[in-house]
Amino acid sequence: MIYKVTNKQYNADDCFVCGTQNDSGLHMHYYELNQSFLLGVTCGKNSHQSYPKRMHGGIITALLDETIGRAISIDEPMCWGVTTSIEVKFRRPVSLDETIYVLGYITKNRSRTFEGYGVILASDKKTVLAESNAKYLKQDIKDILGNDHLSGWQLIPDDKKEFELFYEFIRSE
């Protein structure tokens, strides 16, 4: 299925998942897609390794957590998710030095909390490597960062207009 990019999300300077200045980080780029899906694109490095040539499970969990937690800002731009619980199912090894795609969306949205689902796809854009269900407490960005909430954040423009993915979410809504 072809998903259209509706917005590109900001990257932080020092965040482990999306930070552009974090030498140990994953340098994830996030794209808001039609149907309120969030897509993260990255490639693991040797510093993210557990067993040889495989990404560490904690880092896999961080990717899913960040992606689901950011998905709330598609519909609520001043909101961030603070994780209260996360369950991850590891389906296959996540290879290093290979582009992976992390998709997330919100499954339940309440006034103070939300829940979401995420999946990591291999470079073939269809093989499920890991999946997650998570719960979050909503926090206003200004409550976390203060009034200067965009300090240390930057928008890195690119020409991505759409992504073709061979995995389709099945929503139970």
TrEMBL record:
<dbReference type="InterPro" id="IPR052365">
    <property type="entry name" value="THEM4/THEM5_acyl-CoA_thioest"/>
</dbReference>
<dbReference type="Pfam" id="PF03061">
    <property type="entry name" value="4HBT"/>
</dbReference>
<keyword id="KW-0963">Cytoplasm</keyword>
<dbReference type="GO" id="GO:0006631">
    <property type="term" value="P:fatty acid metabolic process"/>
</dbReference>
<dbReference type="InterPro" id="IPR029069">
    <property type="entry name" value="HotDog_dom_sf"/>
</dbReference>
<keyword id="KW-0443">Lipid metabolism</keyword>
<feature type="domain" description="Thioesterase">
    <location>
        <begin position="55"/>
        <end position="118"/>
    </location>
</feature>
<keyword id="KW-0378">Hydrolase</keyword>
<comment type="similarity">
    <text>Belongs to the THEM4/THEM5 thioesterase family.</text>
</comment>
<dbReference type="GO" id="GO:0005737">
    <property type="term" value="C:cytoplasm"/>
</dbReference>
<keyword id="KW-0053">Apoptosis</keyword>
<dbReference type="InterPro" id="IPR006683">
    <property type="entry name" value="Thioestr_dom"/>
</dbReference>
<protein>
    <recommendedName>
        <fullName>Acyl-coenzyme A thioesterase THEM4</fullName>
        <ecNumber>3.1.2.2</ecNumber>
    </recommendedName>
</protein>
<dbReference type="GO" id="GO:0016020">
    <property type="term" value="C:membrane"/>
</dbReference>
<keyword id="KW-0809">Transit peptide</keyword>
<keyword id="KW-0472">Membrane</keyword>
<keyword id="KW-0966">Cell projection</keyword>
<keyword id="KW-0276">Fatty acid metabolism</keyword>
<keyword id="KW-1003">Cell membrane</keyword>
<dbReference type="GO" id="GO:0016787">
    <property type="term" value="F:hydrolase activity"/>
</dbReference>
